Amino acid sequence: MYACPPHEYTDQVPAGPCDTTVTTYVMLRQMRRSTRISALLLATSAAALAGCGSSSDDNDRGELLVSAATSLKSAFTSYGQQFEDAEARFSFAGSDELAAQIRTGAKPDVFASANTTLPDELFKQGLVERPRVFASNRLVLAVPADDAKVEQLDDLTKDGVTIAIGAEGVPIGAYTRKVLDRLDATTRKAILANVRSNEPDVGGISAKLGQNAADAGFLYVTDIAATNGRLKAIELDAALQPEVSYGVAIVKGAPHRQAAQAFVSGLLLGDGAAALESAGFGVPRTPIRER
Amino acid sequence: MKRGRWFAPALVAALAVTLTFLTLPVVAIFVRSTPGSLIGALDDPGVLDALWLSLRTTLIALAIIVLVGTPAAYLLATRTFRGHALVVTLVELPLVLPPAVAGVGLLAALGPGGIVGRHIADAGVRLAFETAGVVVALTFVAAPFFIRGAQTAFAAVDRSWLEASRTLGASEARTFARIAVPAAAPGMLAGLALAWGRAVGEFGATLIFAGSFRGRTQTAPLAIYERLGTDFDAALALSAVLVVVSGTLLLSAKLLAGPGTGAPHAAR
Q1: Partners of residue A94 in chain B, C-beta under 8 Å
Q2: C-alpha Rg value of chain B to the nearest Å
């Protein structure tokens, strides 16, 4: 919100003996200024209106709107640059938030989630076509690369350690709680007591760690690679590791369905799969089939 | 005469479009949230924690803003000095800064690795992830609203009153406390209500600088955001509560600022 208190406007023109001259001068000054301001306002709004029309209609390739989990950012951005069927535009956020947008009527072409439950739910609600699993990932304990206070999972229980995790609704938060549930009750309680923030997506957790605001957090291994060495990963025991599968679905009534289909195929086998692999994602654990 | 006939309807049409566009989201919040879900949302302990935290942090922030901002605004309103305009502009800067920029700036300045933050961290003071950090973020974004209001109000106080007070032997401090502040009080309170509204609505700077943790740093807007993905009805209900709170604050600002703000001046 930005509310402007009434602005004090005083034109300080010395009141002289020659009142008419002064008044004319003031009027002229104000008029010229107001004409200039109106011209400026008109020009700006015209430019703004021109700019906010559908910008790529005159483009040869259509566009493709992809709502994707924040953890897919680097992989999808590089895939988008190679993708030829349309100009791919991305909206990255927590998967739960993107799903909520679709539930309230948003129509991206593709929804790519950091879990399979959200696409499955949307499918049951008739909002997306049948989802496919396209990648897997794994959770790690993430710490700042320089002078980390935390060197192993047990350090999380120490007094004074601050931890940032995902909020319960976002996939990273749900997976993190699965990991914590597999620990013994005392350790889990001690760790939860040190949690200082429930972030809306992986980006929030990375940022807090990158600024040393938090000492540790749970992230996907692919998030560590995307920070260019600012963070390092501490692997979790296989017994603690939850199954992290990414699901993708074409949104029902997608405005660019053909391009969406090409995008999804490329994720399963093609440039998209290659981009995912080089970003550190695993192949889908559940074999690609109709689920 | 006939040529000008289109103008008045055009003005009315523009106002109708403006009004519809600006009120539609607010109307939608109330249309889509049923009374049952409103009550249900207020039953959620997380929501109550968030509202209570919002109330506490905004009140503390306002207290700080009034204590430091009032004398600062008085100085700006009553003295001219070299760089006066620059100082006023710098004080007003947070008004136009995107909240995300405020959050990043606060983190870079006062975060544990920040240029000042690392020294206060050595002294054992932590702001990130603490309620104190929320207060810092709120103070940063809301202070200019109050200072602007107070400065305008002080500037409008009749100088002859202040001079009379001094001529009668009152000290500068006494004149400030007994004459200037009471005379400027309505304008100051109006500024305060706007600052409060801005603080209640603060989202980005708080999330970036202080994080989101129930009961500690999760203010009402952050609680809305957390529920967006999982429980849209609860997000709507809590939004409805905030509409009422913010609307009340705006209304009190209008009433305090005096009747007829923005209305055409009566013919003299």
Answers
A1: 229
A2: 22
DSSP state, residue A165: E
CB A61 within 8 A of CB A86: yes
Mean of all residue pLDDT scores within chain B:
88
The sheet carrying A110-113 orders its strands as: A86-93, A62-69, A110-113, A244-250, A132-137
pLDDT in tens, A125-164: 999 999 999 999 999 999 999 878 899 999 999 998 999 9
Expressed in angstroms, the distance from the first to the final Cα of chain A is 46
Q: Cβ–Cβ of B213/A196 closer than 8 Å? A: yes
Is the ipTM, as predicted for this complex, more than 0.90? no
Tens digit of pLDDT for each residue in A255-277?
899 999 999 999 998 899 999 99
Helix/strand/coil (H/E/C) assignment for every residue in B96-139: HCCHHHHHHHHHHHHCCCCCCHHHHHHCCCCCCCCHHHHHHHHH
For residue A290, pLDDT beyond 60: no
Q: What is the distance of C-alpha B262 from the center of its chain? A: 20
Q: What angle do CA A173, A177, A181 make, to 5 degrees?
A: 175
End-to-end CA distance of chain B: 27
Q: What is the pLDDT of residue B65?
A: 97
Interface of A with B in 27-56 (CB under 8 A): none
Beta strands in A84-184 (DSSP E): 86-93, 110-113, 132-137, 139-144, 163-166
Chain A residue numbers touching B208 (CB-CB < 8 A): 207
Ranges of beta strands (E only) in B12-104 are none
